[in-house]
Write a structure and sequence with these properties.
With 385 residues, this protein is an all-beta fold. The chain is 0% helix and 41% strand.
Length: 385
């Protein structure tokens, strides 16, 4: 029997692993627990509590300005992971589907995620859930045997365009399921699966990617591809935690001989260091929604990372070495999900981040005072250890 592309989302349903199709109102009242960081005076509120609640990567859109909501992955104490959406104080949480890796569409009206269309069907696909109609639409038809790597969408005149891969080949597709097109990347590691793949938010003909490659040591080569010219660029030999800058032409990343935070053009030119501080470990960084003058960063290293071990900080993007401490994330990082990914939400004064400080991964929001960005300064000693 042919399956309809639109799956009506029932109010209550019994689900097994990766079966999509329910929306259950969960906690309707705010449960936030707030403290004030003793060093910065920044207010930090925990907004999730039950189970484990996991935000996605630092460069994925997890906030909708249209609905003033955040989306995340909820892993209950028992049962499969679920795609959740809630207000910024944690109230009015809804579980919209069993699935993985939720991100918002560019207009904030849909949530894209990976799931199955039925409890008995083998393999996974990419879906779009419309927050207004409460309908889930199946985008891809690949029935992948393992998790699909996909990029947040870019808006185009023809609709929202995504790039996805169920293995070592990538495709572009519109979020209504049309225009599925294989992409002919010409990099030397074509047999490798994708570690990360991202379409430019402003130039949808540009895509950067790197792969899971064995046998090349600690190198993480970064490539980009232009769908207009069909040209593949070798951007740099070593790059992790990369993201598109707001202009959609430059890429920020951790890398280079000193493993500093850097910015480079998609074709491998204009490479420069943003963060000249001598560090140990690396950091997740992300831009505010209204500019590219700063990054909010969360460091990994709990022993020696400037400005403070296990901290969140603001970093000027001009290479001036100006920083400002926000708060501690206190994450023990006992699993991948404990890594302190972070996102701007609502505006440049609200930063959401994840931490397993309580034992389970939960989501927190740091609220910066309006004069906070005036604190950016070069630290004593230039920040060098």
């Amino acid at each position: 029997m042919k399956m309809s592309r639109s799956v009506h989302v029932a109010l209550i349903a019994v689900c097994s692993m990766f079966y999509c199709g329910f929306a259950i109102p969960a906690a309707s009242l705010a449960q936030e627990k707030c403290t004030t960081d003793a060093t910065s005076g920044v207010k930090v509120c925990q907004i999730t509590f039950q189970g484990s609640n996991r935000m996605g990567y630092y460069d994925t859109p997890l906030y909708s300005a249209v609905y003033n909501k955040i989306t995340y992955l909820k892993k209950p104490d028992s049962g499969p992971p679920q795609v959740a959406v809630a207000d910024l104080d944690g109230s009015h949480e809804e579980l919209i589907s069993v699935g993985m890796d939720p991100v918002f569409s560019p207009d904030g009206k849909k949530i894209y995620y990976i799931s199955r269309s039925s409890a008995t069907e083998q393999g996974m696909d990419l879906f779009a859930y419309d927050l207004h109609t409460k309908l889930a639409n199946r985008i891809t038809q690949v029935r992948a045997s393992h998790l699909i790597e996909f990029t947040p969408a870019a808006h185009t005149p023809k609709g929202n365009l995504l790039v996805y891969s169920p293995g070592n080949v990538a495709y572009s597709i519109y979020d209504d399921g049309t225009g599925n097109t294989q992409l002919d990347f010409q990099d030397p590691y074509k047999d490798g699966t994708f570690h990360r793949i991202r379409i430019s938010p402003t130039h949808p003909n540009l895509i950067f990617f790197n792969r899971n490659v064995r046998g090349i040591g600690s190198l993480h080569p970064l490539f980009s591809y232009d769908t207009d010219t069909k040209k593949t660029y070798h951007v740099t030999d070593q790059a992790t935690h990369q993201l598109w800058m707001p202009d959609g032409i430059h890429i920020a990343y951790n890398g280079g001989p000193d493993y500093h935070f850097r910015i480079i053009k998609y074709d491998g030119t204009e490479d420069r260091s943003v963060d000249p501080i001598v560090r140990e470990g690396t950091a997740y960084c992300t831009n505010p929604p209204d500019g590219d003058d700063v990054f909010a960063c969360a460091n990994f290293d709990t022993t020696g990372h400037f400005p403070m071990p296990g901290s969140i900080f603001i970093l000027a993007s001009d290479g001036s070495n100006r920083v400002a401490f926000v708060c501690m994330h206190n994450s023990k990082q006992e699993s991948f999900w404990g890594e302190p990914a972070l996102h701007y939400v609502q505006d440049r004064y609200h930063i959401a981040f994840r931490s397993d400080a309580t034992g389970e991964v939960q989501i927190y929001i740091a609220e910066l005072p309006k004069d906070f960005y005036g604190r950016l300064k070069v630290p004593d000693g230039g920040g060098k250890k």
